[in-house]
Amino acid sequence: MKKKILLLVRRSYLEIEYILSVLKILKKDYEIYAYIENDLALKSLKKEEIFFKEFLKIIKNLKVNQKTNYLLQKVFLKILLFFNLSNLKLFNKIYDYVYDISNIQNIFNINNSFDFIMTDYNSKSQIIRSSFLKKKRNFKIIFFTTSPLTTPGLSNSYNIKKKISPYPNVKYSDFLFVNSSYERYLWSRYISKKKIFSIGIPLFYKSRNRKKIKTKTKKVIISYNCPIDKKIQIKSKKIIKKILVILSKVKNIEILIKVHPIKREKYIYDLVNEINVNNIKFSEKNLIELFYNANLHISLSRTAAITYANHFNVPSIAWTEERRDLGELQEKMGLVNVYPDINILINTAKRILYKDSKIKFRQYKNYKKFYSSNPKNKILHIFNIMKRIN
Fold first, then answer.
1. Taking residues 62-73, what's their average pLDDT?
2. Which is it for the CA torsion 99, 101, 102, 104, positive or negative?
3. N or C: which end of the chain has fewer CB within 10 A?
4. Could you give the domains of the chain?
5. Which pTM value belongs to this model?
6. How far apart are CA 339 and CA 313, in angstroms?
7. Strands (E), 53-131
8. Reported confidence tier of residue 158, pLDDT bands at 50, 70, 90
């Protein structure tokens, strides 16, 4: 009989997309069940039609959390929280009853317990929290990263000294899957290294570098995360506007803006309408598809999209903003060239598009070096990990 894996999805299809290649490998020996915790996550999944069909072929069954489930108990829990009574034994008893993993087993009509629960390392799921609180459980929790590069507490020396993880739930997990040996080192400051396994970047397990189609038109990808902070937003708006206005005047250029699926605000769309030129467009395509035939990538100094650019040998340049955690590491490792002066960034962009390829080759070489310890035979590597943790 095959063992059972429950995949908990709380935010969007991105969580599934990231770990999909690993699930494909595990399908041979495991039954995989997917539980979507909210309607927004389901909506984002269904929006990606081709991807959704592929996902359904891998899993045994899919269910979605219904808001009406245990509605009275949930209301009562909120009342207790409102009056700061969460320390009561009654609260914990009701909480365990509502969010017990056995409820999901019943939804899937499964008699035996799941063997593993897999979920995003930043999960704030009540189901996961309820599982943490149990002194005994007959399943193991596997957290996985959902970005090609994570830097837990890299710049926060206080957290490191006190061993306070910026993702506190991770310490309760049985195992953590990360992208590289360097990340394994970073995470080992918060949890035992024996629990951490480097599996490479699942997103790129099956991707291949296709020959770029040579055209007169140069394609520039701008990956953009809309800042939430209003002060940073004003600064960011001025920067992106200047970049778009100047670059759009360059001959034979197409600018595609890929806005973060969650971190997006109306102002970026209004800004492009205001500039009103034909060679600036928004794209909802997958980043992997976008970078296959791109000539240049421009972004903030901290974004996972830089790793996509590295993988497909697309030169990546960036401007800075307030929070530099991830950006500092990427710049330090030579994965991106960062320019605080926007005029220099724009001139560099022009140079890369029509003359200079040194940045491109240097970044690709550094990328290969950074991930050099990752396994060549991904299927065998995943099977060996699962044998060790069973």
1. 86
2. positive
3. N
4. 3-201+375-389 (3.40.50.11720), 218-370 (3.40.50.2000)
5. 0.85
6. 20
7. 61-64, 116-120
8. very low
